[in-house]
Request: fold
Amino acid sequence: MSTLTVALVQTDIAWLDAMENFTRLEAQLYGLSKVDLILLPETFATGFAIDCDCAEPENGPSVVFMQHLAKIHQAVVAGSVLVTQGHKKANRFYWCWPDGQVRFYDKRHLFCLGKEGEYVVAGKARALVQIGEFKLLPQVCYDLRFPVFQRNRNDYDVMVNVANWPAARRRIWDTLLQARAIENQCFVLGVNRVGKDGRGTEHSGGTAAYNFVGEPIVCATNDISEVVIAVLDKKTLLSFKTQFPAHLDSDKFALSF
Reply:
């Protein structure tokens, strides 16, 4: 499989109403053509309600819903969920396969301005997932600002970031997605929500796919709930990296936690 077809789901998230969000998402995806991957926003079941009593057990209702979607659409389904982790939560980016396989990445970088660290535990490791010939690096929202953690060691083809990124900082979201694609010579998929959350924070979207030189492949309409489709071609990525092998000149480093 030298191509990866991805459905990027930009949606308005009902505050603390998982069942309503499940209903909305299922309706948005109704009639979806065959894809390999469906991406949902960060905390798609609840909104970014880190200080509320809304965390689920591991593999709870949201994962069951994602597995349901995966079977219906015969695609990998991925999105972030607040999960109980001791006396705090994890902001867990789940990946669910049609055959029942589940993998996850826990958000590493916690937003101090929003006091996320008071309620959420930081992830301790990078994670990679593979779909066909494509290796993907999952990231969540604020992770986007930290390029060292995301640095491509020639070990992934696609960076994926799901977010609740506010409209007030939208220009930064757009710019950093493109920068991560250019510096890492990879495809970048960014999925953000729209609408106003339970605290009045506005979100304008910016869901998009970028190629390895930062050019947009597809962009969702601002402020609208919609599903956009991106087709990623690995042959074009490998051809570009062969012609311009900047990754061979990158600095060696080790991450510490």
Notes: The longest helix spans residues 170-184.
